[in-house]
TrEMBL record:
The keyword Ion transport applies. Keywords: Antiport, Cell inner membrane, Cell membrane, Ion transport, Membrane, Sodium, Sodium transport, Transmembrane, Transmembrane helix, Transport. Belongs to the monovalent cation:proton antiporter 1 (CPA1) transporter (TC 2.A.36) family. This is CPA1 family monovalent cation:H+ antiporter. It is a multi-pass membrane protein. The chain crosses the membrane at residues 54-71, 83-106, 112-134, 182-201, 213-233, 239-260, 272-291, 311-332, 353-380, 392-411. Na(+)/H(+) antiporter that extrudes sodium in exchange for external protons. The keyword Cell division does not apply. It is found in: Cell inner membrane; Cell membrane. Residues 13-412 form the Cation/H+ exchanger transmembrane domain.
Length: 548
């Protein structure tokens, strides 16, 4: 009963945080961590012990799958060079640089343990990045690189973290064995994602052949997909995170959605949107619940002469070290790409200083870092305590908070003015796509009317009226996308008036249906069916209005 109440409390505060973030103008992850920390205050607060493996299983696969499904595949493929450079190269660079810096700054932390902390700090948090980085003020190219990096570096960082922990436990490390294991984890992880997607497609295809299967059954297959991919990869000792990301990246282009009915497609999209919001919020609140106990117990190895100031300065120095390492690596990669482009006589798009700095600050850490560091063993094989375990857990929690705070405060100022005013390239592409789709629809409708004319010698009046009405709507859509300001303004005004009339008609329909229910002319089942159709139509119209 206590677990159920705890879950309900977390869900309530997830909903509350969504409203508060708009009022206090604080990034949602920061606000949710603060709420979790407040709930975990001593005496009358909430406390929860989290199993790191269960934490990873419940939250990470669906969240990364959802982010991968919505990621811009074309842009990520075009930017695969810098993305892989950050997702793999920067991880190894961070492990070496940060590991030695930590061991020098805190000598009580053994070097191998410092490498383990560096590895688990390497992955950036995809959820936190998308929540903090405003896509309207950050150049699209940089945003795509950050998204792609955060989807892929979890696998490389956690795999290297396992190697470092194994080296601590066994006292030995083989670079050749580690390299082979890393390649195995990546290859089998990708394969597991592909296989899970294939199995899901076959399951949906089978449900279609059976016929009459509820849409909810099809939706459930899509919900289980990331978990199947994750568990399948983990079973074979590979990267479950990479498996979930692979399944999400391939879902859109695999054609799996063609096996879903219309109702199932709508329910799937709505459910994933809701789950993403709920899981994101619950993840950061749970993260906040852990922090007071971790930060409140400063390990003796970090206290020194100044028990309060020294731990804070250590965390700040390590966070700035991570930012500095990212800046150096981005600068090296950018410079190398520019030199190679000149040698190949190709055009290059180098980053400026502010974009490099924005990309460095945006590398925030989050849930995967905390879950990974909490999974450290309590004891060595001989029964002795795991070396410096409390110190690295404290430092990891501190770096998470510090990186989020720095990004929240500094990134908006750094990124301000980086995007030049003008039409968003994505909006222009969408406008052209709308025009092309509308023209194709007009051509199809006119061909259908002409075919009727050829078969019967005369176009029926009802068909002609219907065709004219539909074509007129498509022509208004084309006019609304016209580059001429006057034509667009006139078409939009006509569209606005039509929209108002349609919405007024929808409201009248809703009122009439409710009146018929109150007078018992229809039952509640009929009322719900009609109101669902009316609400769907209204949602489509208002969605069109919002895009305009």
């Amino acid at each position: 009963m206590q677990v159920a109440i705890f879950i309900l409390i977390v869900l309530v505060f997830v909903a509350v945080s969504g409203a508060l973030a708009r009022l206090v103008r604080v990034p949602l992850p920061v606000l949710q961590i603060a709420i979790g920390a407040a709930l975990a205050l001593p005496v009358r607060g909430l406390h929860v012990e989290i199993d790191p493996e269960l934490f990873l299983l419940v939250f990470i696969p669906p969240l990364l799958f959802s982010d991968a499904v919505t990621a811009p595949k074309r842009e990520l493929l075009a930017l695969r060079g810098p993305i892989l450079d950050l997702a793999i190269g920067l991880v190894f660079f961070t492990i070496v640089g940060f590991g030695y810096a930590l061991h020098w700054l805190v000598p009580s932390v053994p070097l191998v343990v410092a490498f383990a902390l560096a590895a688990v700090l390497s992955p950036t948090d995809a959820v936190a990045v998308s929540s903090i980085v405003d896509k309207n003020v950050v150049p699209a190219r940089l945003m795509h690189i950050l998204e792609g990096e955060s989807l892929l570096n979890d696998a490389s960082g956690l795999v290297m973290f396992r190697f470092a922990v194994a080296a601590v436990l066994t006292g030995s490390f083989s670079f050749a064995a580690a390299s082979l294991t890393f390649l195995y984890a990546v290859a089998i992880g990708i394969l597991a994602g592909v296989v899970a997607l294939f199995v899901a497609a076959k399951a949906l295809q089978l449900l279609n052949r059976i016929g009459g299967v509820p849409a909810e059954a099809q939706v459930l297959v899509m919900v289980l997909l990331p978990f199947v991919a994750y568990l399948g990869a983990e079973h074979f000792g590979a990267s479950g995170i990479l498996a979930a990301v692979t399944a999400g990246m391939l879902t859109g282009g695999s054609g799996v959605f063609r096996f879903l009915g219309v109702s199932a497609r709508m329910q799937t999209m709505s459910l994933w949107t809701t789950l993403s919001f709920v899981f994101n919020g619950a993840l950061f609140i749970l993260l906040g619940l852990q922090l007071p106990d971790i930060i409140g117990n400063v390990p003796p190895g970090l206290s020194g002469r100044y028990p309060v100031i020294q731990p804070i300065l250590t965390v700040l120095a390590l966070t700035l070290c991570l930012i500095g390492l990212r800046f150096v690596w981005i600068w090296i990669g950018d410079t190398t790409a520019r030199v190679l482009a000149r040698l190949r006589k190709r055009k290059s798009e180098p980053f400026g200083l502010r974009i490099r700095l924005a990309g460095s600050v945006a590398g925030v850490r989050g849930a995967i870092t905390l879950a990974g560091i909490l999974s450290l063993p309590l004891a060595m094989p001989d029964g002795s305590p795991f070396p410096a375990r409390d110190e690295v857990i404290f430092l990891a929690a501190g770096v998470i908070i510090c990186s989020l705070a720095i990004a929240s405060l500094a990134l908006p100022k750094i990124a301000h003015g980086l995007v030049e005013p003008g039409e968003d390239p994505g909006a222009a592409e969408e406008r052209l796509a709308r025009v092309g789709a509308a023209k194709a629809a007009i051509a199809r409708i006119e061909n259908m009317a002409a075919a009727e004319d050829g078969d019967e010698g005369e176009v029926p009046g009802a068909l002609l009226a219907a065709a004219d009405s539909i074509v007129a709507g498509y022509r208004r859509r084309i006019a609304a996308s016209d580059e001429a300001d006057e034509a667009r303004a006139e078409a939009r005004e006509a569209g606005r008036m039509e929209l108002e009339l349609r919405l007024a008609g929808i409201e009248a329909e809703r009122t009439a249906v409710r009146a018929m229910f109150r007078s018992r002319e229809i039952n509640d089942h009929t009322m719900r069916a009609l109101l669902t159709e009316i609400t769907l139509t209204e949602a489509l119209l208002k969605g069109w209005q919002a895009r305009k």
